[in-house]
Design goal:
Chain lengths: ~280, ~375
């Protein structure tokens, strides 16, 4: 496991974006050779998306040969609702980049047969050759995607009922009205993310500190589903100082001591212009 | 997901621009297909489509097309001049005004003898705009049922009053109302109420102007259906604090609930003093409609030109009836008027642009397809 500790949210976002950018470019995507990227929503990845858009606008990064799979989507929320993850992805990422709409996959929370929709999503990932890099965020309760505490660590894409903690946290996006917050979602399973060749988890802010502690310093536990990635051979946690508040000094010092190694992953920042 | 292909027409994406949407300039791309504004999110997720052509606007502003509801002609063409070649004249104007941002207009006829209406009106057809020219929304007939005292540049011998027939008199004068969108009349004329009601019933916008009406007469006209004031301040009684006249409609409390009175403004720096422009704008900003009131001389060199039955003289942005100091229409283009309006009132760019787009669209009840850059509106 890598734990990359940056000063603050902006630096953590930029580091993550640089890493994604370099991964895509190193892969040398082309017609018939697509880089597959798993993507999260929420407030944490916003800064990372902004940076990726910047690289694209500067001509350094193209998503022409990138396929994306989003982690989750609410059930029953109209697609054009401003809080749907379709709207989120469109407004915060897709409309700014050159991705082919046929390559951007988001679960349809309004599908007539929800399980069939989930199965089809798994199949599409498989057909795309699996996920090269799955980027995720976590909730304060340590959930990855909508895999709430207690989710099977080998779960696949399916319908989940949201935990009260999640509903409360989301209420701010629905005028603070709990009755408007969707209570169910379609989500990739922990197993789906585990199958990715590489996983990057973004964790920022003091309110996520306990979840980070549970994720990396305690044992694998389905009550903190993100802890499952301890068993993934290539997981990289990108966090800010605040998120490390619950970690042991020893842990933080060890990984900070490795920053010069980690920074080689993002420095130099590659550009497609040079290719 | 089933992919629905709605149209094969090429999709154009305007990038690097600021667009006027929801009363604000927003840094958004504008997507257009088949002459309509496209919702790119629906295109992306439903049709899995993308742009065929991308145009870099280099940080320009994209505004909804301007709508000129009072334009007498331009580029040498006079809509009030009955010729057999009227069609090529109107085609020329509609093509030329595009470069001034006007994408639809109401060709306006000043007071003329019945024979002119009978000859010209059948040659005006309502049509959509395109690269060939601005769309035609229908004619604006300014007169002949107007006040002798406030006739302005209109020829006195052609003025008429409503006689026993009232609405029938109007029909007989104009011949046909098929392509008529706006009628300017003086509400103090006898039997004008029934005419206003009849016109309103037919979906024709009644505008008050060239009139000596007092405020209560004007309010009564609004209660009967009138919604517009023709070139505010010009050709009406000046504002008086004990009887503010037609101008008083801007702050009247007798406007029926849910209704809004609009008023045309010639914002060329000549027809209305900037201070008067500011008074009107501050009193009733949402009713302000910029009009050019342009005459044949717009786009032409200074000198003598015809307006209806009369000869006028153009000197810079000033236009007079030849040999007099009576103002007669304007030669300022719409984009000039928008700029002048913004400078004179210090209003936002958004407000200035909406006065030439959203407001005239609302006046004519066509804001669902014109006057905004909302999805599915005309591009």
């Amino acid at each position: 496991m890598r734990l990359v500790i940056l000063e603050d949210y902006d630096q953590a976002s930029e580091w993550a974006a640089k890493y994604i950018c370099n991964r895509i470019i190193q892969f040398k995507p082309s017609q018939g050779r697509y880089f597959t990227l798993g993507l999260p929503t929420g407030s944490t990845p916003l800064g990372c998306y902004k940076k990726l858009i910047e690289y694209h606008k500067n001509g350094d990064l193209s998503f022409k040969y990138v396929k994306t799979f989003n982690m989750d989507e609410y059930v029953g929320l109209p697609r054009n609702h401003p809080e749907s993850y379709h709207s989120y992805m469109w407004n915060n990422f897709f409309k700014h980049i050159d991705i082919d709409p046929n390559n951007a996959h988001i679960l349809d929370g309004n599908a007539p047969d929800l399980q069939a929709e989930c199965d089809a999503f798994e199949k599409k990932i498989e057909e795309a050759g699996g996920i090269d890099l799955f980027v995720g965020g976590i909730g304060p309760d340590g959930h990855i995607a909508f895999n709430e505490p207690g989710s099977s660590l080998s779960s696949r894409t399916r319908l989940k009922t949201l935990a009260m903690d999640t509903i409360l946290a989301n209420a701010k996006y629905f005028d603070g009205d709990l009755s408007k917050v969707p209570t169910m979602a379609l989500t990739v399973g922990v197993g789906t993310v585990m199958d990715a060749r590489e996983v990057m988890i973004l964790i920022t802010g003091a309110h996520k500190a306990f979840a980070l502690y549970k994720a990396i310093e305690e044992g694998v536990n389905h009550m903190w589903t993100v802890s499952a990635f301890q068993q993934h051979p290539r997981t990289i946690f990108v966090c800010d100082e605040d998120a490390t508040l619950e970690l042991r000094v020893k842990t933080v010092k060890y990984f900070k001591g490795l920053m010069h190694v980690h920074n080689k992953l993002v420095d130099p920042l590659y550009s497609m212009k040079e290719n | 997901m089933v992919q629905q292909i709605v149209s094969d027409a090429p999709i154009v994406q305007f990038t690097n621009c600021r667009i006027l949407r929801s009363h604000q300039l927003q840094r958004e791309d504008l997507w257009v297909r088949d002459g309509k504004i496209l919702n790119p999110e629906k295109l992306f997720f439903d049709e899995k489509g993308s742009a065929d052509i991308q145009l870099d606007c280099k940080d320009s502003i994209i505004t909804p097309g301007f709508i000129d509801v009072q334009i007498n002609g331009g580029f040498g063409v006079d809509f009030s001049l009955a010729t057999d070649d009227f069609k090529s004249g109107i085609d020329l104007v509609s093509q030329k005004i595009l470069s001034h941002g006007v994408t639809s207009f109401c060709p306006t006829l000043v007071t003329s003898p019945p024979s002119v209406y009978h000859q010209v009106l059948p040659q005006i057809s309502i049509r959509n705009g395109g690269v060939h020219g601005a769309g035609i929304l229908g004619a604006h007939l300014e007169g002949p049922f107007i006040s002798k005292e406030k006739k302005g540049a209109h020829p006195e011998h052609c003025l008429r009053t409503f006689e026993a027939g009232a609405f029938q008199d109007l029909l007989a004068t104009y011949g046909s109302l098929d392509c008529v969108r706006i009628v300017t009349l003086a509400p103090e004329m006898k039997r004008s109420s029934e005419v206003i009601q009849e016109l309103t019933k037919r979906g024709i916008c009644v505008s008050l102007g060239h009139s000596v009406a007092n405020l209560s007469q004007a309010e009564e006209a609004v209660q009967h259906g009138a919604t517009f004031i023709t070139h505010l301040f010009n050709a009406m009684l000046p504002f008086h604090h004990r009887d503010p006249g037609i101008v008083g409609l801007l702050t009247s409390d007798k406007i029926p609930a849910g209704r809004r009175v609009f008023y045309g403004m010639i914002s060329d720096g000549i027809h209305t003093n900037p201070a008067a422009l500011r008074i009107a704008h501050r009193a009733h900003p949402k009713g302000l409609v910029l009009v050019t009131d342009a005459i044949a001389g717009m786009g032409l060199a200074p000198g003598r030109h015809t307006l209806g039955q009369q000869v006028v003289e153009i000197d810079g942005l000033n236009t007079y009836i030849a040999g007099t100091k009576t103002l007669s229409g304007s030669v300022a283009t719409m984009d000039t008027c928008v700029r002048h309006f913004q400078e004179a009132t210090g209003c936002s760019v958004e407000t200035a642009l909406e006065a030439a787009s959203l407001h005239p669209a609302q006046l004519l009840g066509i804001e669902h397809k014109k006057g905004t850059l909302n999805y599915d509106s005309d591009a």
